Amino acid sequence: MTGNKIRRIILILGAVFACTAPFIHILYPKTHPKFDIFDLQVQNQQISQEEYKTLVENLKNEEAFFGFKNKRLFWFVAGKPFAMFYFALLLIYVYPFISLDSDIKKAVRFSAILFTFISSYFIVWTLWYRGDFPRVTYYIAIGFVSILSTVVSMGLINHNRSMLKNIHSLLSFIVVDIKSKYISAEDKRSFIEDYTDEIEKLK
Fold first, then answer.
1. How far apart are CA 72 and CA 66, in angstroms?
2. Facing residues of 68 across strands?
3. What is the spatial distance between Cα 165 and Cα 75, in angstroms, rounded to a whole number?
4. Which residues contact 51 (CB under 8 A, 6 or more apart)?
5. Of 125, 101, 98, 126, residue with least CA distance to 112
6. pLDDT tens, position by position, for the chain (203 residues)?
7. What's this model's pTM, rounded to 2 decimal places?
């Protein structure tokens, strides 16, 4: 599988996940059905109050997910930041290709960076289990990690884009310069055919 196909698949899967993430919480019930069963059992005196409290507490511990009381609440909180993060990265990737006024381009770039930071902040806040340390230290640490993830994300995307630009420059040199300067007229046709075949293999 070529690089272009892999990128297309990643973009498509990312878009599907980003568009569905805010709605994943709907798949989970608001409360576990066993809570209703425990309520009925204690009302019918099938279990004691102490047993009821123990069962409810154990079930709450089982339901807990990344510091939230259940998966529904986790996805309700995390879904939108995940979606925002994907589209922020997409903006970072495409803004250099925007052929618009420079002020508009700068605004798009600034928005992409800001969205990346905000979404990273809430994703880290969601996934980072609340520890027993000062609140100020907690938020400063999350802010630092969010800034770092923004810088890393931009660096990786810019590196990938730069690498693609270099590949395009190399291909342009091969197709235009080598063909016109170093290949005889009688060999140009076979060169173009061979070159086209190789390009087709990359798709």
1. 11
2. 65
3. 38
4. 42
5. 98
6. 555 677 778 888 888 998 999 999 999 988 888 888 888 888 888 888 888 888 889 888 888 888 888 999 999 999 999 999 888 888 888 777 777 667 777 888 888 888 888 888 888 888 876 655 567 776 777 788 878 877 887 777 766 666 656 655 655 655 555 555 555 555 556 666 665 665 555 55
7. 0.65
Place of tokens 């925007």: 98
Give Dmax (Cα) for the chain: 97
**How far is Cα 111 from Cα 178, in angstroms, rounded to an integer?**
42
Phi first, then psi, for residue 63 (nearest 5°) are -75, -25
Please tell me the distance from the alpha carbon of residue 5 to that of residue 185, in angstroms, as a whole number: 35
Which amino acid belongs to residue 166?
N
| 3-state secondary structure at position 44 | coil
Find the radius of gyration of the CA atoms of the chain: 27
Query: Tokens 């290709």 — which residue?
Result: 97
Residue 42 is encoded by which pair of tokens?
A: 């204690």
**Helical H segments across the chain, by residue range:** 3-20, 33-43, 49-63, 71-94, 102-127, 135-172, 179-181, 185-202
- State the CB neighbour count (10 A cutoff) for residue 82: 20
State the residue for tokens 């099938």. 46
Taking the alpha carbons at both ends of the chain, their separation in whole angstroms is 9
